[in-house]
Amino acid sequence: MLRSIILGMACLFLLVSSAQAQNVITGNIRNSSTKEVIPAVSVSMREAPNGDYTNDQGNFRFSTRKSYPIVLIFSSVGYETKEITVSGPGAQRIELTPVSVLGKEVVVSASLFVQKKIESPVTIERISTKDIINSPQPSYYNILQGLKGVDVTTSSMLFTTVTTRGFNTSGNTNFTQIVDGMDNQAPGLNFPLGAIIGLTELDVDNLEVLSGASSALYGSRGLNGTLVMTGKDPFKYQGLSAQITQGVNHIKKGKSNDPLGPSPYYDWVVRWGKKVNDKFAFKMNVQYTQAKEWIASDTTDANGIGGPLINPNYKGVNMYGASTSLDLNQFLEGALAMEPALAPIINPLLESGSHYVARTGYPEYGYLSSDAKLFKANVELRYKIKPKLVAILSGTYGQGNAVYSNDTRYALTGFHLGQYRAELKAEHWFLRAYTSRENSGNTIIAMPTAQLINEAWKPSYDGNTGDGWYPQYTGALLQAMMEGKNYQEASVIARAFADQGMPAAGSPQFLHLKDSISSKPTSQGGTKFTDRSRLFNAEAQYNFSHLVKFAELIAGLNYRLYRLDSKGTLFPDTEGPIDVAEYSAYAHLTKKVIHDKLSLAAAFRYDKNTLFAKPRITTRASAVIEVNKESFIRFSYQNAYSFPSNIQSLQSTPVDYNSFASGGSDRLLNGVYQFDKYPAYTLQSVDSFRKTKNPADLKEFALNDIKPQSVDAFELGYSSLIANCVLIDVLGYYSTWKNFIGYVNVANTPGINDPEAFLDRSKYIQYNIAYNGAEKVNTYGYAASVSVDLSRHFLAKVNFSSDFLKNRNNSQVNNFNTPNYRFNIDFGNTGFGKKERFSFNTTFRYRPAYFYQIGFGSGTVPASAVIDAQVSYRLLQAHSTIKLGGINLTNEYYRNGFGSPAIGGMYYVSFAYNVF
Q: Domain spans of the chain?
C-alpha cells in the first residue's frame, strides 16, 4: 500500500514537473564592427512578456514555457533592430550593426508616453548615457549648459542652477527637477539642488529638458521649465562599474585675482547593478567629490563709485561686512560740540551734505570655506511580482559643502538631504510615494555674520563709553585734515586707524568669532538657520489607452505635504512646524487624425494649495503636423499657474544689518512686520531722504498678500531629419505673465511713526520682499539647432538661442538674467582608429556681456568664450577607458552670474572601468 502511494506521488511529481518544464534561452551579443560585447541590449520574445537585457559581458538568459520555434527581437539605441528564430536549445551568438541615432531619439517627459523626439509637441532636449561618456565635462549636470535655450548660474563648484527661457538665477523656484519620478527640490528652500542629491555620474540613463512652461504635466512652479532625470534599471544595466577622475584647478593666469594656487580635484564613483534572478535585481551607487571651491572675488564697488581708496562708503560685491554704513555727520557734530575749535574743518563738511562711511569688509577667501565636498549614496531594490508589475524601493542620501547666491551668499556646510521612495509600477499604471528630508547643517549667511564679526571685535558705536569704530574713524579723519590732508586722503588714514585690531580672515580669532556667531540661531542674535523641513508625496497615474481605443488618455492624482521646520530661523514657525499641503489632478489626451498625419493633444491640471483660497486650473493644447516622414511642425499653447513657493510666501531670513529676505504673505507683511501700522517705503526713497532730510522724498509702497502668478505661453517649432544625416530644429515663443512675482526693496520703522527715525540706521529695517507686479510682463525669443552626422562616427552640432523681456517692471528684481543671444558648438567622434579605440569631443560656448540682477545686487556679467575638450582611449580587453580632458582650456576666468565665483580652467585624467 505504502509502495503504491509513493509510486503514485512520484508519478504526480513527474507529471507536474513536465507540465512546468521551461525552455532556457541564452546567448551573447556583440558589435559587428569591433566584435565588442554590447551590454544593456533588450532581448524580447514576439507576442510574449518574457525577455532579458544583456549584462556587462553581453550575455543574456531567461526562461519561457513557450515551445520552439521562438522569435527573438534584439534592440538597442545605436544599433539596428534584429529578429531571429530559435529552433531549439543552444546558446545564440548574435551580432548587431551600429547605426546613427540622429533623429531617432525617443523621449517620455514631453507627453508622458514614449515618442520620437522630433515628433514632440514642445521643445525638448535630451542627453543620453553615451553623450555623458563622450562629454569633456567631469560632471554630467554641467553638460546642460551646452543645450539649446538653457541658462545656468554656477554658485559654486558643486551647485549649479539650470533654467530655460531667460529667468535665470541661483536657486530658481520656478524650474522643476524630477529624479526617477521624485521632485528634487529642497523641502524648505523649494528650489532644486542640482546634482547634489541627484543621480550619481554612472547611474544616469538619460536627461530630458522641457523648455518653458510645463506645469500642466509637472505641477505648480514648472513655469521656467522642467528637467527629468532617469536612473539606470538594474535589470538592464548590470555589473560593476567604476570611474576615478583626478585633476587640478586654480591655475592662475594673467590678471586673475584667484587667491588659491594649483589645487587637486578628486571624483570617485562606483556602481554595482545585479540581476539575481528573473524576479529580483538591485543596484548600489556611491560617489565622492572633493576640490577647492571657485572663489567669488568680485571687488567692484556695488555703489558704482570706486574702491576703498576713492569711496569711503565702498562696498565690494564679494566683500562681506561692508553693509554696515553710517552717516559720519552725526559723529562730526559730536566732535564739534566737544571741540568748537574744529569748526573751520567740520562746518564745510557738514554743509556739503551727507558723508556715509562703510565698515571694512572681508573677502570671501578665508571667510567662507573653500573646501568643496560631496558624498552621495543610493540603493535600489526591484522585484518583479509579475513580468510587467515591479515593486521598487530606493533610498538616496547626500551630504557635503556647497555655496549658493541669492539675497546674499550662503555657505551650506555639512548639509544632509535624503530621498526615499516606494513604488509599484505596471504596464499601464503606477503608485508612488516618497519623502525628502532636509538638514541645513552649519549654514553661514555671509553678510550678517561678517557684520556681527565686525561688531564683536570692535563695535561701530558704544553708547555707554562713546567709543567705537566710527568715533575712532572720525577722530583720525579730523587729525589728518588738520595736518593738511584732503578728505579723501584723510579717509584712507582714518580707516587704517579704525581698523587696528581687525582680525584677518581665517585667523584663529576670526574663526572663533565666526563660529560663535554662526552657531547661534537667528532668533537668539546669531545667524544660523536651522532647516529640518520635510516633504511627503503620494502619486498615482493610469494609462487608459488600452481601454479607450479612440485616443491616448493618461490621468493621475497627486498629494504633497510640506512640513516647514526651521525653529523660527527661516520661517515664522517658532511655535511649531507649518504644514502646507497641495492637491492635484491631471489628465492628458492625445489623438491622431487625418491618416495619422496630425496629432492633437490637450492636458488639464487642477491644483489646490492650502495657503491660498482658490484652486488653479492649468491647460495645455498642442498640435503636431507630419509634413513628411521625418519633418514635423509643432504648435503649443499653455496657460500655467504657479503658487508662490514657501520661500516666496513665508521666508523671513536676516541677510544684512537690520535687513531681511522675505516672503510676501500677509502673515508676514501685517502680522510680523506691521506694515498696516508702520508703512513700508521704497528703499531708494529712504536713501534719498537720508541725504536731503526732506520728508517729501519718502515714497510709500503698498504691498498686498502675495498671490499665484500665471503665464500664457505660445510656441511654434519645426523639426526635420534630412537625408538621415542632418537634423534641424527651429522655434519661436511668446509669453504673457500676469501677477508676475519679483522682489522689491522697502523699509519701515517698527514702533515709530516719525519719518525722522529713518535718519538713524539702527531704527529702521530693510526688506527684500516677494510681491506681484501689476503690469503684464512679456517674454519672447527664438532658437535653432543643427546636428550633422558626418559618418564614421563624426558628429557636429551648433545651436543658437535668444530671449527678451518686454514691459519690465522697474520696481521689481525680476531675475531675467540672460544675454540677448548665445550659441554653442560641439564637434566629436565616438570611435575611430583601429577597432575604434579612440574618441574625442570639443565644445565651445559663447555668451556676450549681459545685465544680471540678484537679491544682493546687480551688474554686468562680462562676455565669455569657453572651450572644453577631451580625448579618450579604450582598453578593449580590460573593458576600460582612459580620458584626458579639460574645461575652460584657455583658463580665462569667467562668471555666469553677478556675485558668483570666477571659474577658471580645470584639467583632469579619468579612468573608467566597465562604463556603458
A: 21-96
Three-class secondary structure of residue 756 per DSSP: helix
Residues 6 or more apart whose Cβ sits within 8 Å of residue 231: 179, 180, 199, 203, 204, 205, 378, 380
pTM, 2 dp: 0.91
- Each residue of 277-300: pLDDT tens digit? 989 999 999 999 999 999 999 999
Residue 874 and residue 878: Cα distance in Å, rounded? 9
Q: What is the CA radius of gyration of the chain?
A: 31
Grid-cell match 491631471, residue found: 586
The C-alpha cell of 27 is what?
546567448
pLDDT at 18: 39
Query: CA 781 from chain center: how many Å?
Result: 22
Contact yes or no for 150/209 (Cβ under 8 A): yes
Q: Which residues pair with 415 in a beta bridge?
A: 400
17's CB contacts (< 8 A; 6+ apart) are none
DSSP code for 674: -
Cα 914 to the center of its chain, rounded Å: 29
10 Å CB burial of residue 118 (0-12, 13-18, 19+) is buried
68: number of CA atoms within 13 Å, CB side?
10
What pLDDT was estimated at residue 254?
A: 67
Q: CA-CA distance, 293 to 214, in Å (whole number)?
A: 34
Question: What residue type is assigned to position 650 of the chain?
Answer: L
Interval 522-542: pLDDT, tens: 878 888 888 899 999 999 999
Task: Identify the residue whose cell numbers are 566737544.
Answer: 338
**Can you read off the three cell numbers belonging to residue 547?**
481601454
Q: From the centroid of its chain, how far is CA 451?
A: 29
d(CA 285, CA 200): 7
What would the CATH number be for the domain defined by 21-96?
2.60.40.1120
Q: Judge whether 153 and 817 are in contact, CB under 8 Å.
A: yes
Averaged over successive runs of 10 residues, the pLDDT of the chain (916 residues) comes to 43 40 85 89 85 90 87 90 88 89 87 88 93 94 94 90 89 89 88 83 94 86 90 95 97 80 96 94 97 92 83 92 89 92 92 90 92 95 94 95 83 90 96 94 88 94 90 95 94 96 94 92 82 95 90 95 92 91 95 93 94 91 94 94 89 81 90 90 88 88 91 96 95 94 89 86 87 86 96 95 86 86 96 92 97 85 97 93 97 93 96 94
> Are 821 and 848 in contact, with CB atoms under 8 Å apart?
yes
Q: Are strands 325-327 and 356-358 parallel, antiparallel or unpaired?
A: antiparallel
Task: Match 530661523 to its residue by C-alpha cell.
Answer: 569
Do residues 842 and 136 touch, judged by C-beta distance below 8 A? yes
Say which amino acid occupies 453: I
Q: Which three cell numbers stand for residue 71?
A: 522569435
Q: Is residue 194 within 8 Å of residue 142, measured between CB atoms?
A: no
